[in-house]
User: Which sequence fits this backbone?
């Protein structure tokens, strides 16, 4: 049941992102809400569940709007595994921890995407300019994380308690 | 009593979330004039909801005079619209006139075979798009049932948008021209003899920033092309002629290769585009 609820929320986020939020930008960067959701899921649910959901949500996003099937799924799974490994040794209730993790995740996500597209597209992909975007992507995601963290955390905690 | 109430409000975390949310909502409402026309069944509840928000936003703007335009701004808007219309009609007339001359000559040739590539075009909407931070893809609300084919070109905002790379029954996926490796031949709008190839798949050995720009090179180095020249598709190869690609931003000389490269600024804005036309590629066999 929990899995279904988390998956439904994630799919809702994907649809909203693809049809609505991707039309806006902050400093020429569109906010990736799904990435924030996966980070929070990995922090507040079990490791296996987080990895499984990260894979499903990544694949859903790839099938819906992305060019390369599996890239988002791969990055999200790696992130969920990474956060799952470190969450035992960090104090996750401290307010700065989730935003720090979201920032690091955004950097990792952007870097992998850029390197992958550089290999995939070759000379038609500008590495230098994309790396500039990697630097911008982090603060934008942290900014979005500041707004979305508590509502998403609350939803996840409620789901964990009730089901 | 009043102070205690005020302190409670200030210390409450929820107050900051509400303020943050309102600020962001205000920023979005004021910065973007979005347009959602999608008719995808999957998204029907979302799009209708968004349309309601959109119309509500307009109503609120009108009611509160928050976005009241000054007369100069209105005049600029009107002139911009008029300019776009004139550009489109001029482009059409230029193409028609030059084509007419060619057709007159061809009429005399009994072996002339007409091209039917432009007979089939589909008007549709962009229903989803990815974030476009590193790579731009979009989904259109028409698929093989509507006659869309792979490698079809997508036109919107009076210029080339991208190409279709995946066709499904009811929807198709497209990729931005800036991210594709598709090549197309172009000609300058003011002089048909200035021709070349535009593609992202061209290696240019200069320190120029090509982010958001198309690369191209001219066939004839002796021909002069200037910044601001409008480029249109020439009609050679898979794609029909007369479609605006963009404007020349910079001309780059490569003395080593004896070539003249150009940096093309496409007209399309991916953040605001919603309605597109899809034209199938010419059958080459």
Assistant:
């Amino acid at each position: 049941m929990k899995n279904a609820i988390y998956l439904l929320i994630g799919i809702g986020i994907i649809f909203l992102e693809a049809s609505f939020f991707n039309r806006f930008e902050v400093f020429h960067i569109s906010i990736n809400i799904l990435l924030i959701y996966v980070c929070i899921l990995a922090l507040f649910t079990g490791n296996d569940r987080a990895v499984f959901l990260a894979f499903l949500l990544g694949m859903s996003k790839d099938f819906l709007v992305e060019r390369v099937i599996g890239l988002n799924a791969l990055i999200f799974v790696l992130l969920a595994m990474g956060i799952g490994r470190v969450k035992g040794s960090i104090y996750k209730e401290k307010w700065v921890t989730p935003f720090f993790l979201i920032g690091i995740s955004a950097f990792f996500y952007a870097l992998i995407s850029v390197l992958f597209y550089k290999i995939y597209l070759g000379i038609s992909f500008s590495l230098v300019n994309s790396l500039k975007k990697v630097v911008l992507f982090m603060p934008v995601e942290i900014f979005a994380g500041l707004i979305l963290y508590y509502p998403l955390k609350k939803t996840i905690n409620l789901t964990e308690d009730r089901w | 009593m009043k102070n205690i109430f005020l302190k409670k409000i200030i210390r409450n975390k929820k107050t900051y979330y509400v303020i943050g949310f309102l600020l962001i909502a205000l920023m979005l409402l004021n910065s973007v004039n979005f347009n959602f026309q999608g008719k995808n069944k999957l998204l029907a509840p979302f799009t209708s909801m968004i349309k309601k928000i959109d119309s509500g936003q307009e109503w609120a703007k009108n009611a509160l005079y928050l976005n009241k335009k000054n007369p100069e701004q209105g005049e600029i808007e009107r002139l911009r619209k008029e300019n776009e219309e004139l550009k489109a009609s001029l482009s059409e007339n230029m193409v028609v006139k030059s084509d007419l001359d060619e057709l007159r000559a061809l009429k005399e040739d009994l072996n002339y075979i007409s091209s039917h590539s432009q007979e089939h075009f589909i008007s549709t909407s962009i229903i989803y798009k990815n974030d476009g931070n590193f790579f731009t893809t979009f989904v259109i609300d028409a698929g093989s049932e509507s006659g869309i084919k792979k490698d079809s070109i997508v036109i919107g905002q009076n210029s080339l948008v991208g190409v279709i790379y995946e066709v499904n029954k009811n929807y198709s996926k497209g990729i931005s021209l800036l991210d594709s490796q598709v090549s197309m031949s172009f000609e300058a709008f003011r002089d048909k003899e200035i021709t070349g190839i535009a593609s992202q798949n061209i290696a240019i050995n200069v320190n120029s920033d090509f982010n958001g720009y198309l690369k191209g090179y001219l066939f004839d180095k002796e021909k002069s092309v200037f910044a601001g020249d409008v480029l249109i598709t020439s009609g050679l190869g898979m794609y029909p002629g007369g479609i605006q690609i963009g404007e020349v931003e910079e001309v780059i000389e490569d003395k080593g290769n004896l070539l003249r490269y150009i940096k093309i600024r496409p007209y399309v804005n991916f953040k605001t585009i919603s309605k597109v036309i899809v034209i199938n590629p010419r059958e080459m066999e």
The first helix of chain B runs from residue 2 to 11. Residues 30-47 of chain B have pLDDT under 50 and may be disordered. The radius of gyration of chain B is 24 Å. The CA atoms of residues 76 and 82 of chain B lie 10 Å apart.
